[in-house]
Design a protein that fits this description.
The protein has 746 residues and is an alpha/beta fold. Helix content is 35%, strand content 22%. The chain is built from 23 helices and 31 strands. The strands form 7 sheets. The chain has a 9-stranded mixed beta sheet with strand order 2-3-1-4-5-6-9-10-11, sandwiched between helices. It has a 6-stranded mixed beta sheet with strand order 12-13-17-14-15-16, sandwiched between helices. A 6-stranded mixed beta sheet has the order 19-18-20-21-31-30. Helix 6 runs parallel beside helix 8 (144-156). The longest helix is centred in the first third of the chain and has 19 residues, at 3-21. It is globular, with a radius of gyration of 26 Å.
Length: 746
């Protein structure tokens, strides 16, 4: 035993005691962080505390719930464990658990996807359980192919580890196809008949340039997939869920594996619980845990960590859950939608480091599914409450900004007193990562106040409250809720006689990163609110478009492989696009779509030809990891207000002589096109190219209306009809979101 190891253990013990007994805070991360700083090889030494081995659960959604369920199943089978039950899943959290808990037979750990490469080669775990891979925290994690490469490298460095993976996810199947480890495939062998959402994370084949097809799709990219251009398809399932029944009492299915078929059940009544059920069953059977013990753990599983946690407060049923990416949020909306009774829904979005500063993903959530539900009140909270209120506004939902969950309950009480909602209306609180603990703490405190005989709940709530104080939204404008004031005026006779404004959304099946499609939603809605007819033509991969019949073109950004495929199709349209641009056709291009407009752009580390529509080129001074990532504020001639956006790009773009920028970066954070000149984006004729997403137009309505004015001019010329005026709209919600970020960034 080295001196470093002894010092590291001592430092971990001292910091654990101080945090718990002096600061009264959880000791989930800091002791491990201190200990690893003293001895970076500490995990190698601690591995021996798990005498029979360890299991690591990894994936975007469901890690904490599945890992804790596995821990319960191991204990139900009489096996002693070390586990990071709190969800502290970086190397520091796993190290803390190993330092603080006594030696045991098994380690049962959850691990962040990008930290697996550090943890797995040191722990040399017996199994890795890979649940799913969804787009998440693009500013921290990057595109999904980076995560795939990292996980595959971790497994290759621990060749005796068995990979138990979700074969219904083509992104997970690609990892299993590449690694030398033994693999075990699980999935659902029949459709659950779910309604599909707008955005998925794997539209392109993982082996060739074809597009993924489905015999049936569950949600996100999960399902029975295949490529009609190569042999890539869902592998044969080693553990297959069948006869799936989902109802209020939970999920029941028969899982067929190497030893036969068995019926299993979880009390969690959600489609993603079905995947967690078959995943945990497959892992337990591999480890040799009897099904009776596994089922006993399932039946008793009652998470108290804010994940699908239920309360009974003031005569109301309350459900709290975590959602931190589009797929997770969309599945939560399915739960809310299924409740046809009166209800309050409170969403909380933060943008701290653990959440990712970039919240563009809220525009990939199908909030529209919640619009129009009767007797439903919606609130927006968290540090990015104003952005969330704008997103909900464009979904047709009026959402007042709140400071915290207590504020939501106060407003609900006022609505009940006024007779607007019954006293037993259900409550749903959905929060992202750092927004969850303060909501969880507040609900625990309310529960404890109604049941003072339960001191443990009050103590837990107080502990969490100290660790994560409730964030208050930055509300400089205190703008009144305005979502109801832009109501669509309806189809007047004049509107019916007008030809529609045609918006071409180019290749949304490939260029769909960073919530960029929200720009099209905003442009469309701002026309509809004014009674101007509009038609959005979504030009999918392989489809053609007649640009002479288009009034506005939008191009977003995408992952490298998808962007390269999109560029090839756009290059084939180059002459038609050039004629459109030279004819003053308005075009908005974001990030990768912006780069493609120049003479050359970057595909990975390779320079490739662009469309040459603007005299500019994109180069890379470093590697793809050397990215410009930050919020930024611009001065732009297209807007009287500051333009607020978010950048995340590795390429450096340089404008040619006479090409104007879209704006100039005036905030201390943010860079723009490159590291040097503070110029952001480009303008040429009626073309706007920019790295600013989030999407760009959500907090910058003047830019949206500038584009729409140019589109109306083109429609007038194209159809021979008079040019329509853009009537003013109530943009107080958008400008409140703008002002909030300008204040923060200044």
């Amino acid at each position: 035993m080295s001196l470093r190891f002894s010092l590291a253990k001592a430092a971990g013990a001292v910091s654990t005691w101080g945090l718990r007994h002096v600061a009264h805070r959880p000791a989930a991360n800091l002791p491990g962080k201190i200990a690893l700083a003293i001895d970076p090889a500490l995990l190698d030494e601690l591995r021996g505390k798990c005498t029979q081995g360890s299991v690591i659960t990894v994936g975007t959604n469901g890690k904490t719930s599945t890992n804790n369920l596995l821990a319960d199943a191991f204990e139900a089978a009489g096996r002693t464990i070390i586990c990071n039950r709190t969800g502290a899943n970086l190397a520091a959290g796993i190290t803390s658990a190993l330092l603080q808990q006594p030696a045991a037979q098994w380690g049962v750990f959850e691990c962040d996807e990008l930290w697996l490469a550090h943890v797995l080669p040191r722990l040399r775990s017996n199994y890795v359980l890979l649940l799913n891979l969804f787009r998440d925290q693009l500013d921290r994690c990057g595109e999904i192919d980076r995560i795939q490469t990292s996980i595959a490298g971790a497994l290759a460095a621990s060749p005796d580890t068995v990979l138990v993976y979700n074969a219904d996810d083509p992104l997970c199947a690609r990892i299993a196809d590449e690694v030398p480890n033994r693999t075990v495939a699980y999935g659902l062998d029949e459709s659950m008949g779910l309604a599909q959402n707008t955005v998925t994370d794997a539209q392109m084949c993982q082996k060739c340039d074809g597009m993924v097809r489905y015999h049936y799709r569950q949600y996100g990219q999960l399902g029975d997939y295949f490529c009609d251009q190569c042999d890539f398809a869902r592998p044969t399932l080693d553990f297959a869920g069948r006869d799936i029944a989902i109802g209020p009492a939970g999920v029941t299915m028969e899982v067929c594996g190497p030893a036969g078929c068995e019926s299993v059940h979880t009390p969690q009544p959600t489609p993603y619980a079905a995947y967690n059920l078959v995943a945990s069953y497959a892992l337990c059977r591999e480890v040799g845990i009897p099904t009776a013990d596994f089922q006993r753990a399932q039946d008793a599983f009652n998470p108290r960590n804010g994940r699908l946690q239920r309360y009974r407060l003031g005569g109301r049923d309350v459900l709290l859950n975590l959602a931190k990416n589009p797929t997770g949020f969309n599945q939560n909306l399915k739960i809310v939608e299924a409740d046809q009774g009166p209800k309050m829904v409170a969403f909380f979005i933060n943008d701290q480091v653990a959440d990712g500063h970039d919240i563009s993903w809220i525009w990939d959530i199908d909030f529209e599914e919640l619009a129009g539900q009767p007797d439903t009140v919606v609130f927006a909270g968290g540090s990015r409450a104003h952005d969330l209120a704008v997103r909900l506004k464009y979904a047709g939902i009026e959402a007042a900004v709140i400071e915290n969950i207590e504020d939501a309950f106060d407003r609900l009480g006022a609505l009940t007193a006024a007779g607007a909602l019954p006293s037993d209306a259900a409550v749903y609180a959905i929060a992202n990562y750092t927004a969850l603990p303060p909501v969880h703490a507040a609900l625990n405190a309310m529960e404890a106040a109604e049941a003072p005989e339960a001191p443990e709940a009050a103590e837990a709530a107080a502990c969490i409250a100290v660790a994560a104080p409730t964030p208050r939204p930055d509300d400089p404008a205190q703008a009144p809720a305005s979502e109801g004031k832009n109501a669509e005026p309806g189809n007047t006779a004049a509107a019916l006689s007008e030809p529609p404004v045609i918006i071409a959304h180019m290749l949304p099946d490939l260029l769909n990163l960073y919530g960029d499609g929200g720009n099209v939603r905003i442009l469309e809605q701002r026309l509809r609110w004014r009674g101007i007819p509009v038609e959005v033509r979504r030009i999918q991969h392989g489809e053609a478009v007649d640009f002479s019949q288009v009034d506005l073109v939008f191009m977003g950004g995408g992952p490298d492989r998808e962007q390269k495929l999109a560029s090839e199709q756009l290059l084939a349209m180059r002459d038609e696009l050039a004629a459109y641009v030279e004819g003053d056709g308005p075009l908005l291009a974001i990030c990768g779509g912006y780069q493609i407009l120049g003479r050359q752009w970057l595909w990975g580390d390779e320079l490739v030809p662009g469309l040459g529509l603007i005299d500019m080129e994109t180069r890379r001074p470093g590697t793809s990891a050397d990215r410009l990532i930050d919020n930024m504020v611009l001065e732009s001639p297209l807007a009287a207000h500051p333009v607020v956006g978010y950048e995340n790009h590795a390429g450096r773009t340089y404008l040619g002589e006479g090409v104007e920028g879209f704006g100039r970066v005036v905030s201390s954070c943010g860079h723009g096109n490159n590291d040097d000149d503070r110029v952001e984006g480009a303008r040429y004729k009626n073309v706007v190219g920019t790295y600013s997403h989030g999407p760009l137009l959500s907090k910058n309505p003047e830019v949206a209306d500038w584009l729409l004015a140019r589109a109306l001019e083109r429609r007038a010329e194209r159809t021979g009809t008079p040019a329509a005026d853009l009537a003013p709209l109530d943009d107080s919600a958008e400008l409140a979101a703008n002002a909030s970020m300008v204040k923060r960034l200044s």
